[in-house]
Fold:
Amino acid sequence: MSVDIEFLKTIPYFQGLGLAELEAIKRFVFEKSFDANEFIVEEGDPGEALYFVVSGVVKAFKTSAEGKEQILRLIRPGESFNDVPVFDSEPNVASAAAMGPVVLYGISKSDVGIILRDHPQVAANVVKVLAGRVRHFISLVEDLSFRNVLGRVAKLLLEYAENRTGPERPHLTQQDMAAMIGTAREMVGRSLKALEEKGAIRIDRHRIVLTDKRALRGTAGELL
Amino acid sequence: MAQMPEIIRELCNGCGLCITVCSCKGLVLIDNVAVVIETAECAYCTECEAVCPTGAIRCPYEIVVEEG
Structure:
């Protein structure tokens, strides 16, 4: 395996770095592959490495004592995970699992320290990435606090249909959707039916087709 | 080929609940593991996923915006 410099350039942590700096960082990068549904890291374990998704999609999630899953975010190519335990030296705050076959680049915790020390631009990029992460979680708290389930489903559909980050846009089951918006699968099923009756979506076998984005935005509480 | 439910073999406990709710006979148990039989009758109702106690069945959706 050889680490692809062109791919490293697309990672937000490494934006603005020159070829020489990327070559220096490349030495610390290792590659790992996982099968669908395989655990990559488990909540509570020590944070040993920072990971970047090269191909496939990874879900970061928490599991309640009753086994209920809350997906915190889906991680697509170029995006990182396991950052928090690597930076604060506390245990992993969430588990991560492959949603399909995935390839990752990893950098060990000690090597992340060396990179941050030697390449200040990376530290500046890390701040920006983590600020974006805070925005994401504020939005999730807002959804859980202020939106009803129908509104959360409408918002999720809009976000996923509009997120055109390439071929890795994940396909979601009703269970995935429920775990992302903090509700039960049955509620997602009912909400999809209600949105279809409103004419906002059409369920076309395995495709959810957004037919009236304005109506969806209204339901999501984001009237433009 | 029609999109059919997906089975994660390692998670299937062979309980057969999915088969009892499948109205198109698109699922069978082979060696105590649920197996999907491709059939044009499958309406992708997702009932099999709903009743599976172990999360072994997935019915994923692509989410797209209508063109035009």
Observations:
- Chain A is about 45% helix and 20% strand.
